TrEMBL record:
InterPro entries reported for this sequence: 6-hairpin_glycosidase_sf (IPR008928), 6hp_glycosidase-like_sf (IPR012341), GDE_N_bis (IPR032856), MGH1-like_GH (IPR054491)
Membrane-spanning ranges: none
Pfam families named among the record's database cross-references: GDE_N_bis (PF14742), MGH1-like_GH (PF22422)
Mannosylglycerate hydrolase MGH1-like glycoside hydrolase domain location: 324-625
Organism: Acetobacter aceti NBRC 14818
Biological processes annotated in GO: carbohydrate metabolic process
Gene3D superfamilies associated with the record: 1.50.10.10
Span list, region Disordered: 1-21
Domain Putative glycogen debranching enzyme N-terminal: 45-238
Protein name: Amylo-alpha-1,6-glucosidase
Length: 743
């Protein structure tokens, strides 16, 4: 039986001159905030355009260089939230985001407490369970307090809160000369409404609803008083609604609203993920990692009018990114082709149709990034609809071709065809700035990205002596993407009856293959250089970029072994994965963002290229390295990147302190590598699933793949190691599907 609160409501306003004293950081912690940021363990939740960043106790901390909060459409709607027992922060016992990524659970207990009735409560006699999830623009929380003492107690607890409505870029540290107006809070019996009118004339609102009715309620604090008998529990519910006027509000009391929303969130995830293929192996630790990967992918999906779209990552990239979504869709194409369809359709609708130097936009170019916050609306940052990536456009066409190969969906490709031809036209008219056949980049907006490939940090493209390259810059992997795009446009064109166009694309692709091997190959380093600078001088640097060229047939047979050796030698392969830049290069630093770190998605694309050229042993090494890395990371989750230090038996990979986790293309890495080692591909024309020389890594004795779907049919298979070979058996199938094993 749940106890009832004592006391009545006291509506108390906070003085306008008084900064809310949220009590989130002690003096010692506040002074050390910057130093400890890299060691903090945070939990993230996401649902559509809402995401939250919380500390392990469930609090939202507030202080210099701390950007925790509840964010909605690139604005922080809640910037402080704490729970206290008798003004004391409870002791953390455990904290986890459950495997399905819906619910965050935190177990806490009390310190030694001096109660307000003059008695003392020894530590570890109260258990506090905080349960939190996001759904439909709101954050729901239930706090359960249970008394394990043999005596009853009068307990006072409080929740303190604060909303600064900071733009996401402001929360990350950008300074603004002006801000909008903080509106007068509105306090009712069990609710507080906080609002802000931005310089963009938009009013943003946070509504907090409590249950039971607080003993006292002010603009920044809700206080509750309970009489708790031995063995009894009490419950506190909180709803934090972002812009509640945008959607129909529940009329249910908070306890029922919590339960109904939790059921709806679980059902939505189950319905979305049920269409995907599933993976189970003999290695339970790997199963945990692959389940986390799949759940991360579906958590990051946001439903658009055009279909599901994977947001890039939490916390700072929980929005539309073109390149990230295209690569994620490519990695998950075997698993769930509807993701690729949603990505292609969204990017087609938002393809640039005119020149806009502020947004680096040109007709036919594909999006890089979309931002919805106040600073983007006011052009204080250039990312409202920003097109400053050099590779999104060829990757768009490349994915369209792969989607057709996977599904045979000519109808969708017919709809996309005008966008495909516009993308190819952008490559020829704008991408190739000097008419030499290569695609180069150089920003038109000084506040835009200086480097516009996937390695977009300012120092990622350089010469052998470490001097930064000056543009316009032609990246080696981008030329491979352009080549693949032209080949894809040719295949799609023929399926749609555009034979002359297809022949022209094949001719241009052939010419690019020749010129690329003349201009980008360097005998001294035995591989393709990372880039050509603005004077067409080679940046003679070994890099993982060269591995992306293997996704195509641009590499002549006599050069293949050299490229692979450069990627898999000890200077490049850390034991966990291939470094972005190998040891020995001028700017090599295993702790650098792009100059020596290991990125899972980078490795997945390279492994996909290895398999294209029959290099299964090398692909299996990448699989083993990254699957082992996942087992050493929090929640069995591969992060955006980790440091490139050489693998040691004594420890896991060294954490990169501010890596996004989860990140879409990192989450898609393990599923992509499963496809790689299985040699799995689809033949929609003959409604067949094919396995080309499959292998099982040493740590996995058997593997089961469920719901491999093509052409409206499906099958489930079991793969078992038999000596150096594998045996594949069909467990279950629909009527007409075929399975083929190709040795």
């Amino acid at each position: 039986m749940d106890a009832q609160p004592t006391g009545s409501v006291d509506h108390t306003d906070t003085s306008e001159d008084e900064q809310p004293d949220i009590g989130l950081l002690s003096d010692d912690l506040s002074s050390m905030a910057s130093a400890i940021l890299s060691s903090r363990r945070l939990h993230c939740l996401k649902n559509d355009d809402l995401f939250g960043v919380f500390d392990q106790t469930g609090d939202i901390l507030w202080g210099q260089d701390i950007a925790d909060g509840l964010y909605y459409r690139d604005t922080r709607y809640l910037s402080g939230l704490t729970f206290r027992l008798e003004d004391q922060r409870p002791i953390l016992l455990s904290s986890v985001v459950r495997e399905n990524n819906i619910m965050m659970s935190v177990n806490l207990t009390n310190e030694n407490l001096s109660l307000r009735d003059g008695t003392r409560l020894a530590h570890d006699l109260l258990h506090v369970l905080r349960s939190r999830f996001l759904w439909n623009g709101a954050c729901y929380e239930r706090i359960e307090i249970r008394n394990f003492d043999i005596s009853p107690h009068e307990i006072v607890c409080d929740m303190r809160f604060f909303a600064d409505f900071a733009d996401l870029f402001e929360a990350r540290g950008m300074k603004r000369s002006r801000r909008g107006e903080t509106l007068e809070p509105v306090i009712e019996d069990d609710t507080v409404t906080l609002s802000y009118k931005g310089l963009d004339d938009r009013t943003r609102t946070t509504r907090l609803r409590f249950c039971p009715r607080p003993k006292t309620l002010s603009t920044d604090r809700a206080t509750f008083g309970f009489s708790i008998k031995p063995g009894e529990k009490v419950l506190v519910h909180l709803e934090v609604q972002c812009d509640p006027s945008e959607r129909q509000q529940s009329t249910e009391p908070p306890p029922r609203a919590f339960l109904f929303a939790a059921v709806a969130a679980r059902r939505a995830l189950r319905n979305a993920s049920s269409r995907a293929s599933a993976i189970a192996t003999s290695n339970e630790a790997f199963n945990e990692a692959i389940r986390r990967s799949i759940c991360d992918i579906y958590m990051l999906l946001t439903e658009k009018k055009t279909g599901p779209y994977p947001y890039a990552g939490i916390p700072w990239y929980s929005t539309v990114f073109g390149r990230d979504a295209l690569i994620t869709a490519l990695q998950t194409l075997w698993l769930d082709p509807l993701i690729a369809k949603g990505v292609l359709q969204y990017l087609a609708v938002n393809q640039a149709d005119h020149e806009d130097p502020l947004a680096d936009a040109e007709p036919g170019k594909i999006l890089h990034e979309v931002r919805l916050g106040e600073m983007a609306e006011l052009r204080e940052v250039p990312f409202r609809r920003y097109y400053g990536s050099i590779d999104s456009t060829p990757l768009f066409v490349m994915l369209a071709g792969a989607y057709l190969d996977r599904t045979g969906d000519v109808g969708t490709l017919s709809h996309l065809w005008p966008h495909i031809t516009r993308a190819i036209d952008w490559i020829e008219r704008f991408g190739d700035r000097d008419g030499d056949g290569f695609v180069e980049y150089g920003r038109k907006n000084k506040d835009g990205l200086a480097n516009q490939g996937w390695k977009d940090s300012h120092d990622s493209i350089f010469h052998a002596d470490g001097t930064l390259a000056e543009g316009p810059i032609a990246l080696c992997e981008v030329q491979a993407y352009v080549y693949a795009a032209r080949r894809a446009a040719a295949v799609i064109g023929r399926r749609l009856g555009q034979t002359a166009y297809a022949a022209h694309q094949d001719t241009r692709a052939d010419a690019l293959r020749v010129s690329f091997n003349l201009k980008f190959w360097n005998d001294d380093i035995g591989t393709y250089v990372i880039a050509l600078d603005g004077k067409k001088k080679q940046c003679v640097v070994r890099s993982s970029n060269a591995g992306h060229v293997l996704l195509t047939d641009m590499v002549p047979g006599e050069r293949l072994d050299k490229v692979v050796q450069n990627l898999m030698n000890r200077k490049s392969f850390s034991g966990w994965g291939i470094r972005t830049i190998p040891e020995g290069e001028a700017r090599y630093n295993p702790m650098a963002y792009h100059n020596g770190s290991v990125w899972p998605h980078d490795n997945a694309l390279i492994a996909m290229g290895f398999v294209k050229h029959g290099l299964r042993k090398e692909a299996a090494l990448i699989f083993s390295g990254l699957s082992d890395a996942a087992l050493h990371t929090d929640l069995r989750r591969l992060p955006e990147l980790f440091c490139g230090f050489t693998r040691s038996q004594a420890e896991g990979p060294v954490r990169y302190p501010v890596a996004c986790s989860p990140q879409a293309w990192a989450a898609a890495t393990l599923p992509a590598l499963v496809q790689v080692v299985m040699g799995l591909r689809y033949d929609p024309d003959n409604v067949a699933v094919e396995f080309v020389r499959p292998v099982l890594p040493e740590a996995i004795h058997s593997l089961k793949l469920f719901n491999l779907a093509v052409g409206g049919e499906w099958l489930t298979v079991r793969i078992v190691r038999a000596g150096d070979e594998v045996a594949i058996n069909v467990v279950e199938r629909s009527t007409s599907i075929q399975m083929k094993i190709i040795n």
